[in-house]
Amino acid sequence: MQLIDPNHPAYRRLWVRIAIVAVCFGWAGVELITGDPFWAVLAGGAGAYSFYMLFWTFKPQPEVAAPPAGPDVEEEQEETPQAKPSKDGQAE
To answer: Residues annotated as region Disordered (predicted)?
Structure first.
């Protein structure tokens, strides 16, 4: 089961990956200091998992340049004057 998708564009920046791992391990430290080893183990496990997914198995994808925008299809079509029916129902 994959909880973190390392190919998501949000994880492309290094500082984001470092911050996620640091917050998890930092919270584990807070839980240890306050005397809650159960929550410290959970937060430490989340930190270890995020480190594994975001650093160990992370393979950066090259940035794909967006294709140049072409003209809209609507703009290419010229407006053709429509024949207006006369009052008696026949086109002029």
So the answer is: 64-92
